[in-house]
Each structure stands twice: as C-alpha cells, then as structure tokens.
Fold these 2 entries.
Entry 1:
Amino acid sequence: MYAMSSKEKFIEEIIKIIDRWSFEQCAFCDDGTMVSIEDMFDFRCGKCGKSMNPIIYLGEIVKAVFNYREQQENSNK
C-alpha cells in the first residue's frame, strides 16, 4: 500500500464533506444522522448535537482548501 499524496488526501476530504452534505449527515461526526428541529430547514446531529446548515458544510470545505493551500506553500519553501 502506498502513502497518499497531499493532493489525494485533499480530494478525499472534499468528497467526504460533499457526500455528508448530500446524504444529510453531520459534517463533523462519522455516522452522525441529522434530526429535524423547529422546521424542515434546521437540522441537528443526533450524535454530537451540533446544528447543521449549508453554511456549516461550506465552512468545512473552506477549511480544507485553506489547509491544502498552506501545505502546498510550506512544501514549496
């Protein structure tokens, strides 16, 4: 088995976040199932209790992008 490159790890992380968003799973927990609260637009993770909305998922994608860029800049120095 070979070690994954930082690019492969980055792509895998983005796909994982998008899959969780698409299948209405928690952005933070493995196997975190979303439960509707208040109305149909607000969801909370049944495992960790954190509220989830599209901005949370986008924020996790942004973090992954910034981390990847930082890794690339540090490896080019």
Entry 2:
Amino acid sequence: MSSSQPTPSGPTAAQYVVEHYQKTYELTYEFWKERNNLFLWLVVFLAAVTLFVSLGRPNANSLLVVWVSKTIGLTNQADIDTLKNSINFDLLQTLALAVVFYLTVNLYHRTQNVIRFYKYLGELETEIRSTLNLPTNSIAFTRESSYYWNKRSRLLGLIKYVYIFILLVLLGGFVILRLYEDWLTGWNLFRVANVIIALAIALYFGGYVWVSKDS
C-alpha cells in the first residue's frame, strides 16, 4: 500500500509577499493623493494670502472686516466698527505663516513617504519575481521598477521641477513680502515669531526639494 505526501494548504510565501505588495501599493496611492491635495491647498492658500497682504494693512483690514461681518451676519455699524478696531492684523499674519508652515511640513512628509514607498515597491517586485522564478523578459511585477523607469517620458520627469518652481515663487514671494513689511513697520514679538516660522518654512521646503529629486 503506497502512501502519498499530504498536499500543503493555505497561502504560500509568494502569496504573502504579493498580498503585502498590494496593500503597500494601496497605502502608497493614498499618500500620493494626499500629497497632491496638500500641494493644491498650499498653492491656493499662498496665492490668496499673498494677494490679501499685498492690498496693504488698511485695505486688507477693511476687507477682512467685511468678510467676517457677512460670515457671522453682523449688520450693526457700531458692532462692525468695534470688530474693525479689535482685529490684530499682526496676529493674523503670524497665523497665516503658521498655516503655510503646517502645509509645507505635511507636503514634505507625504512626498518623502510616497518616494520611499515607491522605492520599496520596486524592491518588492524584484523579490516577487525571484520567488516566482519569472523569466527575465517577463514584464510581470515590473510596474514600479524597471518598466516604469524605461517607459517614463522625459516631460513627466520634468514635472517635479515645475512644482518646485511654483512653490519657490509663491513661498518666496509670500515670506519675503511678510518679512519686508515687518522690517518697515518695526519689530515686536509677532515679528520675531514670523522670522522663526519663515526659517522653519525654508528648512522644510528645502527638505521637499531634496526628496523630490529622487522622484
């Protein structure tokens, strides 16, 4: 009576790796979408706040009072005048810088994760191909590694420089305008905070440029 070896059941090592690859790709795609949304929010916010600051303190303050009044339904002129006198423009501009810093840090973080995860996916593809013993001329599991780099157009590779240039112009214009006005109007605690936040923005923007070179 002959005996036979039991047929193994359950996922194999290759299936575990492929499943991990798919989950990593989904996570990477989510980071990619978040990175793109953060870039758009940063550009829109920078454009809006730069335009607002360029109006000058009196005009910008009046515009802000009108917007707040309409938002909260304020119609009494005495209350509107009180609101106008109570708004701290220096505080608002420092808060605007803080928002720019927050968006810049998150853009750097998401960009770093996206690039790191895509590199990881590329190495996973090599591991999967080795595990499955795929022939060298097969394109299976090369989407994020050799196939991507061989088929990517040169124009696509230039996009990162366009993004960097857009942010450099908007970030530089906003921060320089902000600090230049501080220089003209004199220094106080808010303006010292502005310098510190501006330096932090420059640091993380530099980090964003540095990690983007590998994309």
